[in-house]
């Protein structure tokens, strides 16, 4: 393996440790593995290796995005670049949706009233020119999208799906979609490292060689995710004995997802790097 290939792989590992990636790893793993807290504190058997299957599909999701980025000379690569902002906004709305799921706010009888109230407060802030027009339209679009999902009972489908698949983790399709969202939305935050790898890829003689660089970068980012998932599921098996503690972890993870989703939605995720 050439030195540049090793550099691409190392860059992936460094990206995992980035300020805007490492803090959200527990929240992502909590959703991907499909492990939920039992309010009664009843211990539920966790099967670590089966839970790792969705994590592999999550890794496959963001790897596909990065490899497509590496194929900049192809029409597919240009198409992805053209629609990256739309993908990021849609992904941000979905991350917020997952955050609401983890905080269990969807289960409140007055959720729609609270969510609608928040929306009207946001509109009021816009009317008083406290919010920029582009930000308002973006967040309003996500608000309408999430409201529609709620009215169509998408949140209940998610709860039933995770409950039915508790022994195997989240569905591989959901994990793959979340992986795609991670790859598309987190690109601005990990821009400096990813940009350097894309520059190396652009200097290769063939598109295939460029894609190899991004595949190695994805492997460097994916392996720590996989290792973290292995220890995460083991940790969940321990915490299951103390349901009240895991409920707090789950709620905190949901709040973190809500924050990350809002930053992703408004294109301000890179602010975390500056912190």
Number of domains: 1
Q: List SSEs in N-to-C order.
A: HHHHHHHHHHHHH
Terminal CA distance reads 36 Å
Mean pLDDT: 75
State the total count of DSSP E strands.
0
Report the biggest beta sheet as strand number plus sense, adding barrel if it closes: none
Instruction: Determine Rg (CA atoms, Å).
Output: 19 Å
Work out the helicity level: over 70%
Number of helices: 13
Structural class: mainly alpha
Low-confidence stretches: 37-44
Strand content: under 5%
Shape verdict: globular
How do the helices and strands line up, and which of them pair or pack?
Blueprint: H1 3-16, H2 25-32, H3 48-70, H4 75-82, H5 84-102, H6 111-127, H7 133-151, H8 154-164, H9 172-185, H10 191-202, H11 207-239, H12 243-265, H13 271-274
Helix pairs in contact: 1-10, 1-11, 2-11, 2-12, 3-9, 3-11, 5-7, 5-9, 5-12, 6-7, 10-11
Which short descriptors sum up this protein?
single chain; 275 residues; mainly alpha; 13 helices; globular
What does this structure look like?
With 275 residues, this protein is mainly alpha-helical. The protein has one domain. The protein has helices spanning 3-16, 25-32, 48-70, 75-82, 84-102, 111-127, 133-151, 154-164, 172-185, 191-202, 207-239, 243-265, 271-274. α1 packs antiparallel against α10, α1 (3-16) packs parallel to α11 and α5 crosses α9. The protein is globular.
